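Is calcium ion placement plausible here? Inputs below.
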Amino acid sequence: VGRLEPARPLVGRRVLVTSGPTHEPIDPVRYIANRSSGRQGHAIARAAAEAGAYVTLVSGPVAQPDPPGVHVVHVESAREMLEAVEVALPADAAVFTAAVADWRVADAAEEKIKKQGTAAPTLTLVENPDILAHVSRMTKGRPGLVVGFAAETEHVIEHAKAKLARKGCDWIVANDVSPETGIMGGLSNTVHLVTATGVDDWPTLDKDEVARRLVARIATALRP
Ligand code: CTP
Ligand code: CA
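Reply from A.M.:
I modeled the complex. Tokens:
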């Protein structure tokens, strides 16, 4: 291997990544969503593939192109995302970047809801399955390394530490999305890598660079 050959430390490894928002139907023409662009998750999938991994990317609806060399499964809702994640396992590492909708409409209408001249409709919400928590707590076939993301606007590290404990994952990439730093959908990211042993503060980086650094950390963690 020549000196200029890119490092491929994940050859032979399987990596699962979730990315993008989810869309939760209200009726056949309307949905609830969020501002996730999928940029960071797609960049992680691309970086893992470049590092030699077999990558499955489970993506909600995004405007990003499918990353080259990645097996992409397109889904809409949180429940579809959970199903696709279960199908994609086993994996050596799983990175949950998706901004999964916390709630869905309890009874999505089968026909378009019409204005009926009187009161506006009321939407009843129910909680979606927590995909990261579900995979983190699998007793059989849990990926060796489970990484969550946490987008926070305040108390970033405290909230991330609480999430790490609550969900049972191995790492949380805490993502500062306060208006002065992050802003969801932007090109750069200010993150802190929270693990059982401590917190690494990374400088504000391009999302591709965050992805490459995270993939390098994952490769180190998976090294026998
Ligand atoms: N996540 C998930 N399934 C959900 C909700 C969240 O897999 N139903 C994952 C996200 O992909 C992310 C992590 O959990 O990796 C944290 O998501 P976040 O929205 O920050 O955490 P929540 O537990 O939903 O807490 P809150 O939104 O109230 O801050
Ligand atoms: Ca949430």
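Short version: The chain has a mean pLDDT of 94.
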